[in-house]
């Protein structure tokens, strides 16, 4: 269907129906990913049918989720803290829209979905007084791309109560469609946005040229997911669950020393409990001839260290494959190292975060450019976002390095302020405003001194 013209009601309904089938196919795989991400994956398949209830309880508690650790480690290191463009007025106008949409907090949801599923979206639409920016999960939104990899041809988003929103380069179309019911699809309305493109920006965890031509696994596995941080780690998550399940079974049934008595049987359950709790046992032989052939002993308890070490080895493997600091996955940091040592420990994760800054940063810059278009202003092509520095570098060494750059290389000090860790854009604005006021006062003082001379 050709783009460029506003769709008629029947065309919008047909397009929603067509994209709905693609959405359902994607949703099944994404739901599988989310269950692993949130620790609600299937119980270990080794549990036989008809097992006791206590075993099923132990199986449910054996799901030791590590996916959230890997994802949160990345999310907490990717935080947009500012936007730089040549024009101060345009820069501030675009940043005001970001602030008005509370994106300081909501950007994390876009990043988190991109890391978990491999992709997420942001939708920008005209609004009053500022354009509207909102994140969309791939579980509720499906984008179809053509020759232009930056802007989709169509975007279908699921709303509440059977309402679907279809976006193209002209408008947003609202269609009531519930395929499970006999009620026919109903066109509600169309709202033109006049942005010239389908106002949807794609955020990718990583760029893969073969992503759309993925091969199926040879073993016939239903899911052939490779995108995002969760999919590659699912086999290791299964290993951790199985090892934890075996550990719980071992410690429940044989993790303690069990005593046995040969040649004596209790008359009732109360007597059995009494003997089991006693420190000193006096037993009467059941032999009618009075032979004292009673033997008391115990079974050795199962050594649980092998299970624990096996689970920790798998977690270390997870840390290596995901480039996550091992102390974040295992929590084994008895003697915290100095800041310089933490820089070396976090080096692999920092390189991974740097790659994500490049990928997600381009998407954010595309979002800002669309916000500028919605406000009828333009921003320069070299505009870029500023990421908050979350690396484990010593504050003192960072300040000393910046001071040396300003002194030795003659870089203006105010251009280095934004590289100070944990400094926010509002603080930078206040510093620059104060510096300008002081500079103006110094010029006035110098002029009065010259007149007096």
Structure keywords:
14% strand, three-stranded antiparallel sheet, 12 strands, 45% helix, 453 residues, alpha+beta
Describe the fold and architecture.
The protein is α+β, with helices and mostly antiparallel strands and 453 residues long. The protein has helices at 9-37, 53-60, 67-75, 88-100, 103-117, 234-253, 269-277, 305-322, 326-330, 339-345, 347-374, 395-408, 425-452; strands at 80-84, 119-125, 132-136, 141-144, 154-158, 163-167, 171-176, 186-192, 200-204, 258-262, 295-299, 384-387.
Summarize the entry for a quick read.
With 453 residues, the protein is α+β, with helices and mostly antiparallel strands. The protein is built from 13 helices and twelve strands.
Could you give the topology of this structure?
Layout lengths: L8 H29 L15 H8 L6 H9 L4 E5 L3 H13 L2 H15 L1 E7 L6 E5 L4 E4 L9 E5 L4 E5 L3 E6 L9 E7 L7 E5 L29 H20 L4 E5 L6 H9 L17 E5 L5 H18 L3 H5 L8 H7 L1 H28 L9 E4 L7 H14 L16 H28 L1
Antiparallel strand pairs: 1-12, 2-3, 2-9, 4-5, 5-6, 6-7, 7-8, 10-11
Helix pairs in contact: 3-5, 4-11, 6-8
């Amino acid at each position: 269907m050709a783009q460029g013209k506003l769709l008629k009601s029947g065309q919008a309904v047909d397009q929603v129906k067509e994209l709905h089938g693609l959405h359902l196919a994607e949703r099944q795989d994404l739901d599988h990913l989310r269950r692993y991400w949130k620790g609600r994956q299937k119980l270990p398949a080794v549990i036989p049918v008809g097992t006791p209830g206590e075993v099923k309880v132990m199986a449910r508690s054996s799901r030791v989720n590590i996916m959230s650790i890997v994802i949160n480690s990345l999310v907490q290191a990717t935080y947009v803290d500012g936007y730089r463009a040549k024009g101060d007025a345009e820069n501030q106008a675009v940043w005001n829209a970001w602030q008005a949409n509370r994106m300081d907090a909501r950007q994390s949801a876009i990043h988190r979905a991109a890391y978990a599923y491999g992709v997420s979206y942001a939708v920008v639409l005209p609004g009053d007084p500022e354009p509207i920016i909102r994140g969309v999960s791939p579980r509720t939104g499906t984008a179809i791309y053509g020759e232009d990899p930056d802007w989709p041809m169509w975007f279908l988003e699921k709303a509440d109560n059977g309402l679907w929103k279809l976006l193209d380069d002209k408008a947003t179309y609202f269609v009531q469609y519930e395929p499970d019911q006999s009620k026919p699809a109903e066109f509600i309305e169309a709202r033109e946005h006049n942005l010239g493109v389908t106002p949807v920006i794609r955020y990718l965890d990583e760029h893969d040229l073969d992503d759309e031509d993925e091969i199926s696994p040879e073993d016939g596995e239903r899911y052939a997911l490779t995108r995002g941080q969760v999919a590659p780690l699912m086999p290791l998550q299964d290993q951790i669950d199985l090892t934890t399940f075996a550990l719980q079974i071992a410690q429940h049934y044989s993790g303690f020393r069990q005593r046995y008595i040969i040649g004596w049987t209790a008359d009732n359950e109360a007597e059995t409990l009494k003997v089991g709790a006693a420190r000193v046992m006096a037993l009467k032989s059941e032999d009618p001839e009075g032979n004292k052939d009673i033997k008391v002993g115990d079974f050795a308890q199962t050594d649980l260290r092998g299970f624990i070490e096996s689970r920790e080895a798998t977690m270390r493997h997870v840390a290596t494959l995901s480039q996550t600091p091992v102390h974040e996955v295992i929590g084994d940091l008895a003697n915290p190292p100095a800041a310089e040592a933490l820089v070396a420990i976090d080096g692999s994760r920092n390189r991974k975060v740097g790659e994500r800054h490049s990928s997600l940063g381009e998407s954010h810059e595309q979002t800002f450019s669309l916000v500028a278009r919605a406000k009828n202003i333009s921003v320069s092509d070299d505009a870029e976002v500023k990421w908050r520095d979350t690396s484990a570098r010593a504050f003192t060494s960072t300040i000393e390095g910046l001071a040396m750059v300003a002194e030795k290389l003659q870089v203006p000090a105010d251009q280095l302020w934004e590289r100070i860790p944990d400094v926010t854009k509002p603080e930078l604005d206040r510093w620059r405003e104060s510096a300008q006021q002081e500079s103006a006062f110094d010029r006035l003082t110098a002029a009065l001194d010259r007149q007096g001379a």
